[in-house]
């Protein structure tokens, strides 16, 4: 076990702890769930364990395919060791099919295929509800340099190709997702998570969501959907244990 020191950050589905090694941190995945900028809260029993395993799978695959990321190794059921990056305060949303806030903003029905991949940037500021920003905002506020933005774009599109392909093999459509990046020893690394908390995954046959939208919109079978994604990806049949 790593020697954990202080808690560095607490997010919607995770806690981040410092370790005695200043270059590393421990992510603890929680069952706690937030939606609509914290207005709706709840628990998805076993989510922490499932997301820890899904992220291990995703980051390992992305490393093998040349996408530099923060993942080092899984430590136990709920914790993974990661590189301690300086998070860039801009999130990237990648969209293949219209859903969620894009459907509201442009008035297209959910499920409309986009003619090209859409990239959106949001300011990482929960008090402002993570507003949409454009590239000139990002450079005007010195949130990231043009070179960093270019690299984030390049990596985001590559993640889209890799994860869309991998999910298609298990009959899941990657509708859209959110990524975070960090600076680490002069490099830009993919950070945060790639899981049903941050991606829209639809069953390719039924178009049923297999992600946090089940919780957001009270669709039921939330735990089952998370377990289903893990099972299709890894064959792992997990008996979830509740977070202490
Ligand atoms: P949106 O349609 O609500 O803007 O979401 C787009 C994608 O971003 C979707 O896959 C869910 C993900 N997302 C997060 O991971 N965290 C968030 O706080 C929000 C609002 C969206």
Describe the structure.
This protein has 244 residues and is α+β, with helices and mostly antiparallel strands. It has six helices and 14 strands. It has helices at 47-64, 100-106, 135-140, 146-168, 213-216, 222-234; strands at 4-10, 14-19, 24-29, 32-35, 40-43, 71-74, 79-83, 86-87, 90-97, 113-123, 132-133, 172-184, 187-191, 199-203. Strands 8, 9, 10, 11, 12, 13 and 14 form a seven-stranded antiparallel beta sheet that branches. Strands 1-2-3-7-6 form a five-stranded antiparallel beta sheet. A two-stranded antiparallel ribbon has the order 4-5. Strand 6 and strand 7 (79-83) form a beta hairpin. Helix 1 runs parallel beside helix 6 (222-234). It binds thymidine-5'-phosphate (TMP). Thymidine-5'-phosphate binds at residues 93, 99-102, 176-178, 198-200. Thymidine-5'-phosphate (TMP) is lined by residues 93, 99-102, 176-178, 198-200.
Computed over alpha carbons, the radius of gyration is 17 Å
Quick check: average pLDDT?
96
Using DSSP, what is the number of strands?
A: 14
* Distinct ligands: thymidine-5'-phosphate
Low-pLDDT regions: none
Helix content: 25-40%
Strand content: 25-35%
List the helices and strands and how they pair.
Elements: E1 4-10, E2 14-19, E3 24-29, E4 32-35, E5 40-43, H1 47-64, E6 71-74, E7 79-83, E8 86-87, E9 90-97, H2 100-106, E10 113-123, E11 132-133, H3 135-140, H4 146-168, E12 172-184, E13 187-191, E14 199-203, H5 213-216, H6 222-234
Antiparallel strand pairs: 1-2, 2-3, 3-7, 4-5, 6-7, 8-12, 9-10, 9-12, 10-11, 12-13, 12-14
Bound molecules: thymidine-5'-phosphate (TMP).
């Amino acid at each position: 076990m790593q020697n954990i020191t202080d808690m560095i950050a607490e997010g919607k589905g995770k806690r981040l702890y410092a370790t005695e090694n200043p270059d590393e941190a421990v992510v603890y995945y929680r069952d706690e769930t937030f939606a609509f900028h914290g207005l709706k809260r709840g628990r998805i029993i076993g989510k922490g364990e499932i997301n820890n395993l899904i992220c291990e799978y995703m980051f390992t695959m992305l490393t093998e395919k040349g996408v530099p990321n923060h993942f080092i190794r899984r430590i136990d059921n709920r914790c993974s060791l990661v590189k301690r990056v300086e998070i860039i305060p801009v999130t990237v949303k990648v969209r293949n099919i219209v859903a969620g806030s894009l459907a509201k903003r442009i008035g297209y029905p959910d499920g409309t295929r986009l003619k090209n991949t859409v990239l959106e940037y949001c300011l990482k500021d929960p008090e402002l509800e993570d507003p949409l920003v454009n590239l000139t905002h990002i450079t005007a506020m010195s949130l990231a340099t043009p070179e960093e933005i270019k690299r984030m774009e390049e990596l985001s599109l590559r993640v889209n190709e890799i994860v869309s392909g991998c999910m298609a093999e298990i009959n899941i459509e990657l509708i859209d997702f959110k990524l975070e990046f960090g600076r680490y020893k002069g490099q830009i690394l993919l950070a945060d998570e790639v899981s049903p908390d941050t991606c829209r995954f639809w069953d390719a046959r039924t178009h049923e969501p297999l992600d946090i939208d089940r919780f957001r919109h009270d669709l039921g079978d939330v735990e089952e959907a998370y377990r289903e994604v893990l099972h299709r990806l890894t064959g792992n049949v997990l008996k979830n244990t509740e977070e202490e």
